[in-house]
Amino acid sequence: MSALDETDLKILRVLQKDGSLTVSEVAERVSLSQSPCSRRIGRLQGEGIIIGRSVLLDRRKLGFHAVILARIRLTEHGRQSISVFQEAAFRIPEVQVVQLMLGDFDFHLRVVVRDMDHYQILLREKLVMMPGVREIQSTVILEEMKYTSLLPI
After folding, report:
1. Are 9 and 150 a contacting pair, CB within 8 Å?
2. CA distance 15 to 54
3. Tell me, what's the pLDDT at 77?
4. Are residues 75 and 29 in the same domain?
5. Would residue 100 count as lying in a domain?
6. Are strands 95-100 and 107-113 parallel, antiparallel or unpaired?
7. Cα gap 18→32, rounded to integer Å
């Protein structure tokens, strides 16, 4: 990976705020001509620094009114049991984030659901049925005051 200069960082700041911008729009915002900007973006993608572009959706307007943080404790802690659990969690569409943790619990899941009835069904039919689950502790998020994926670069 090559070192990032200030122009690379400007490009990354612009793109992480609005991934839908064209190369021309990015180039204009960072005071660079289109061709060098395009080459830099291509290099940043090739090096895996830019791993994709996405659109943020308003979950509430789409009917997902509850966010749950589920902490999972597994019965075993071997590499295979962690991998099997992880793969199972990836297959559940309501699970947005899967994080392996140190501490009292092994995994942290961020789950979006339409309402608490939806979560109860998900919990009973999918979450507790995942391989190796010993304990689940759930916390309901009342309000998200800040939710961002922006890095402080």
Report:
1. no
2. 10
3. 86
4. no
5. yes
6. antiparallel
7. 17
pLDDT in tens, 19-31: 999 999 999 999 9
**Containing domain of residue 118, as a range?**
60-141
For residues 69 and 110, is the Cβ–Cβ distance under 8 A?
Answer: yes
Which parts of the chain fold into alpha helices (H)?
6-17, 23-29, 34-46, 79-90, 116-122
Mean pLDDT by 10 residues, the chain (153 residues): 92 95 97 97 97 91 98 93 96 98 96 98 97 97 92 94
21: which 2 tokens? 């911008």
This prediction has a pTM of 0.85
Q: For residues 129 and 150, what is the distance between their CA atoms, to the nearest angstrom?
A: 34
Q: Does 136 lie in the same domain as 65?
A: yes
